[in-house]
Amino acid sequence: MIKRLAFVAGFGVGFVVGSASGRKSYESLRESAINTWNDPKVQDKVAEGTDWVKAEVPVVGGKLAETAQKAAGTVSSKAQEGASAVKDKAQGGAASVKAKVGSNSSDADLPKPVTTEKDVDMDAAEPAPTKDDMKN
Questions:
Q1: Which residues, other chains included, contact 42 with Cβ-Cβ below 8 Å and sequence gap of 6+?
Q2: Would 54 be classed as within a structural domain?
Q3: How many Å apart are CA 107 and CA 28, to the nearest integer?
Q4: Between 131 and 95, residue with greater pLDDT
């Protein structure tokens, strides 16, 4: 539906701008729009709407400020709760590690590493460049 509307609108604009009769229609439409905009009744409604917006901006701004402060408080409290939970978990983990180390547990209790030193190739893939390699 939107594609059809866009096509019709594009076709109409192309017709108005592109053809001689369309140019006449465009000028007529433009003149009508200017006359409508300059009509005192329309200007009265525009002024009324502008005055209403000017009156409502402070109210809306105050509500936005209140909401922002409330959101900041909520985010702050949630962040503190999260930090407290992380701290508790870290302390529990540290206590667990201290208990294992303190009890002189064997290495069999620890997980096996995924990669060992033998798996890692520390040799360079190619020799380092020399002065001759740097010349253009």
A1: 36
A2: yes
A3: 91
A4: 95
**CB of 110 within 8 A of CB of 96?**
no
pLDDT band at 102 (very low <50, low <70, confident <90, very high): low
Question: In the listed set 86, 109, 124, which residue is the last one of a domain according to the structure?
Answer: 86
Count of helices and strands (H, E) across the chain: 4, 0
In a domain, residue 112? The reply is no
Q: Report d(CA 75, CA 63) in Å as an integer.
A: 18
Dmax over CA atoms of the chain, in Å, equals 97
Residue 85: pLDDT over 80 = yes
What is the distance between the alpha carbons of residues 109 and 87, in angstroms, rounded to a whole number? 25
| pLDDT at 29 (0 to 100) | 86
Give the predicted TM-score (pTM) of the model: 0.34
**Domain check: are 16 and 27 in the same one?**
yes
SS3 103: coil
